[in-house]
Structures are given as C-alpha cells and as structure tokens.
Amino acid sequence: VVSAATAPEAGAPSSNTAPANRIAHVLRSGLDSLYLSAKGQISATTENKLDDLKARAQDVSESVQTTAQLPLGKHLFCVLDRGRRKFAYVIEDNWFSIGIGKRGNTALPMAHAQISSEALTGSGALHCADALRSVLGQLGALNGPLTVSRADLFADFITSADLASNIPTAWISRSRKRARYDEGERFTGLAFGMGGMISARLYDKTFEILRSDKTYLRDLWREAGWDGISQVWRIEFQVKRKALPPELTFNVEVFLESLPMVWTYLLNEWLRLSVPNAGDDSRERWATHPLWQVLALIHPNSEAMNVRAPLCRVPSDKTLFTNGMGALSSFMAREGITDWSHGLGEFMRQAERFHAHGTADDGEQLAAYLKRKTLAKGRRFNTMRTGHEE
Asked: For residues 201 and 266, is the Cβ–Cβ distance under 8 A?
C-alpha cells in the first residue's frame, strides 16, 4: 500500500531535452486515465429524464434511439441503453463516461466517472475535474468533493536498454503474477499484477497506436524530441482506491498534488528493474538498473498539453478515408471499374436503385436511409442534436 512513510522523496524531474545516447529519454508522463466518484443525489426531474432517455435508447426503432441524448452545458451526452455495474444510467462523450445512480440509493455515490486520456492530455486533470463537477451539478446536488477511485499513471520514453532480453528474475515486484507478450517475433511488453489493487504494464507504445486513433501522441512526442522513428515504450500503473492512503483519495486536488510521491513508491517499492548479481542470493540487494533510476525520478505531469481535446467522439480521417473506402473498392472490383469517379457515380446510382425498389431490409429510400444512419452516428459521436426536444 502506498504511504507517505514508505515512499521516498522524489528527485529532480527528468529532462525532455536529454541527449539521444542516454539510457532513457523521457518524452511524456502523467495521468492516462482518472476515475472519480461524487456523493450526492440526482434531482427527481433528472431521474425522470434519464428514465425516458434510457427507454428511448432501448427502443427497437433506430429513429427513436437517436433521440437518447442529454445536453449539459457544452457537452452533448449519448445516453446508453443499459446501466453499468450497479449504476442505473450511463452517459458518455469524448471527455467523460459517467455512471449515475438512482435516487435514494445510499449504498452508491451519486456518480462514478472516467475522464478520458485525451481530455486529461489536452486540458489537464484539474480543468477536467472542474468540468466534471459542473456537469454533475446540473444533474442534482453534490455532497462533498470529488474523490479518487482509480488512477492510471504513465511515462513514455525512449531507451537504449534491450527490454526484451531482461531475465525474469531482474524484475522485482510486490506481485508474483506476471505475463509476457509477443507479436510474432516482436517483443511487445510485460504485465505485472493484472487484476490486483495495483498493476503495471510495460509495452511498446509505437506498436500499440498503430491499432488506435491516438495519432496526437506522435505530435506530442516530436515536441519532446522524438525523431519519428525510434521505438517508444510506456510504463503504466493502474492504482485503485484501496491501494492508496485514504487522505489521498478523499479529494482529487490532494491526490494530484501527491502524484510524485505515488510515482516514487511505484517505481522504487512496487516494481523495480534490477541488475542481477550472481554473487548475492538476496534479490532485494541487487542494484537498480540505470533505466529504472531515470524513470523513478520523474515528476508525473497532470497539466494541460498543447493538443485539442474535442468533446465529440469523431472517427479519424484515416478511419473515414482509408478503412471507409472498403465498400466502394469492393463494389468497383465487383463491377470491374478502375476509374474512381466512374466507380463512385455508379455506386451511388445502384445504391439509389437498390433502395428505391424496396430491396433494402427497411424498405427506405436512399435519402431517408442515409439521414437515419447519420442521426444515429451523430448521437454516438456527440456531434449533432437529433431533434428530440423537451
């Protein structure tokens, strides 16, 4: 368990302008995700509205489903058709995923929210917490500060160390549970203590973002000295409430001020990469690896970075204009067409004919079909009001 007594004082923060031949060049550090709880009670008006919107989300008609939205200030939340764990309602946008409890359920907090990585990166943890407090205040009466139920701390770095070759005994952890991951012949990472109160992952972040839309990370890395080619690793810890001293979880602002202390404990006490010494049977006495010495001195940064964090969850240009061309290219291949303008025109002509003849499952005309699908995705992406007004 993290405590002020066991966590040594953190040293000076590592530099983002370190020379490339250092054992480690730290690019970024901070919070990848933050889970907060709020005590209080939603209003009767809010509960009635959420009951109605949840029922709309569950309707068999997609046209009705698209109206399951809840505008709160600048946020346009998608209301889900189901609850989460013991929370009756869930609302989501690109910043927050919020579980909301029923009125009168004193066993649960009023709300439990996850703040997204993109929001934390772009706007900073304090601003996000303030924005969440404002959103929740529109649902009902809050009773006390936002409290921390889980935090994911991370650091992205480049290293000259060969992480794949470290023998298992070099890793000294409070958890005996661990796993290694490879993709073909490529070593992609390690995991420690998964499912516990504290867990850690060390993984190839450059490889991981090939499968995600987190392309904004590349720009942030470049600003910190990344050459655009080098492999970037991430060390990430998931810390749950029970692993933290109560005084750190009672108030999110106090927790954020204590991030360096928590990080120092994790890198010095919970997980450490050592230099094996065959002449010493006590692994606890083995020297700390130079890479780990650098990482342990990081002061995690929870402040805003120079990146826009939109409130809506929009697909990337790559998703739309590369993956999204699958239907068109399949059609052109079927028809033996290679000219894209001819193919696009013919695709639209046949699509309109298909819908006009009622051969589509729903029997809609093409324009009506596209409008319905656009509204459904507008709800899911948090980009447009779908016409339902109180």
From this structure: no
DSSP conformational letter for 158? E
Which contiguous run of DSSP H or E holds residue 378? helix 366-381
Tell me the C-alpha distance between 182 and 190, whole Å. Answer: 9
**Range with the poorest average pLDDT among 11-15, 128-132, 268-272:** 11-15
What are the E-state strand segments in the chain? 24-38, 40-42, 69-72, 75-79, 89-92, 96-100, 111-115, 140-142, 147-159, 171-173, 178-183, 186-192, 198-204, 233-240, 271-273
Mean pLDDT for all residues in the chain: 88
C-beta of residue 182 within 8 angstroms of C-beta of residue 205: no
CA 17/CA 108 separation, integer angstroms: 46
Structure tokens belonging to residue 37? 């709880």
Do the Cβ atoms of 214 and 316 come closer than 8 Å? no
Higher per-residue pLDDT: 185 or 191? 191
Residue with tokens 């303030």: 130
For 39-72, what is each residue's pLDDT tens digit? 999 999 999 999 999 999 999 999 999 999 999 9
The residue count of the chain comes to 390
From CA 263, how far away is CA 229, in angstroms rounded?
A: 28
* Residue 106 three-state SS: coil
pLDDT, tens digit (0-9, with 9 covering 90-100), for 69-106 = 999 999 999 999 999 989 999 999 999 999 999 998 88
Q: Read out DSSP for 221-289?
A: HHHTT--SSS--EEEEEEEEGGGS-HHHHS-HHHHHHTHHHHHHHIIIIIEEEB---TT-S-GGGSPBP
